[in-house]
Amino acid sequence: MVGNYSYPKTTTVSPTITDVYTTLNETAATYAGPKTTTTTATTATTTTTMTTTTVGECLSTVMSNQIENVEASTIYGDDKIKFGPQFAIDGKLSESSGNFYHSDEERQPWFQLTFTSPFSVTGVTITNRASHYPVASERLRNLDVRVGSKALTKSGEVSTNPLCGFFKGPSTSLATEEIPCNTPLTGKYLSVQLHDEQVARVLHINEITVGCTNTEATRTEEETLTKKEKGTFTIMLH
């Protein structure tokens, strides 16, 4: 079951080369937030790199700029509006009994992020659901975090991608748990899956952020201008 994530819209225009460079200079001088502009031009390929960011800042920029899709094995009661996987990356911490990801009770439930391209991950940070009852908040335990090239596609499937890290737990209400990779891993897919093999259980994720390497932090803060004859180029400002 899939939850969709909204990305910055793309606008296409057809300027001259002079207009292109004038627009780029004005945009860099007045930049006030994330946006993507696509234009058509005719010339050679050029790349311009702006200032880099820190690894810590990468945690927030990855969420909006590098995720292509978010999905999960099941959704509690099939209620996407209240428990869909999209809530785990909306940047909003829920302190209620909804608006976080909640699976059905099943064996080895999973949550999966698909990156726009293979991404180098150093770990994840997961915030647990809010609950006055330990029996609910303590469900966040025995987690495998894996990164690799193979996607999970159905309920009951177990990821065979390389193991990034393991969280034994249990967690507590609204606790934030850091799960570092033993070594940075690069992949198209990142999954969080309950490790128990014989017990039907529930997976909760209030919020998840992804840690990345210095190389990836630089990549998310680049302004790239690529121009090809009778083609298009994209200016990405993050």
Structural summary, described in words:
The protein is of the alpha+beta class and 238 residues long. It has two domains: 2-50 and 222-237, no CATH class; 55-214, Jelly Rolls (Sandwich), CATH 2.60.120. Helices cover 17% and strands 37% of the residues. It contains five helices and 14 strands. The chain has helices at 17-30, 55-65, 80-83, 134-137, 214-220, and strands at residues 2-3, 10-13, 35-41, 67-72, 101-102, 106-107, 110-127, 143-148, 163-167, 176-194, 200-201, 204-205, 207-212, 231-237. The strands form four sheets. Strands 1, 4, 7, 8, 9, 10 and 13 form a seven-stranded antiparallel β-sheet that branches. Strand 2, helix 1 (17-30) and strand 3 form a beta-alpha-beta unit. Helix 2 (55-65) crosses helix 5.
Number of helices: 5
The rounded distance between the terminal residues' Cα atoms is 29 Å
Shape: globular
Q: Which CATH architecture of the largest domain is right?
A: Sandwich
SSE succession: EEHEHEHEEEHEEEEEEHE
Largest sheet: 7 strands, antiparallel
Helical residue percent band: 10-25%
CATH level-3 fold name of the largest domain: Jelly Rolls
Structural class, from secondary structure content? Answer: alpha+beta
How much β-strand is present in the residues? 35-45%
Residue-averaged pLDDT, rounded?
Answer: 74
The first-level CATH class of the largest domain is given as: Mainly Beta
Number of domains: 2
CATH superfamily annotation of the largest domain: Galactose-binding domain-like
The quaternary organization reads as: single chain
Outline the low-pLDDT stretches.
5-18, 20-57, 223-238
How big is the Rg? 20 Å
Based on DSSP secondary structure assignment, what is the total number of beta strands? 14
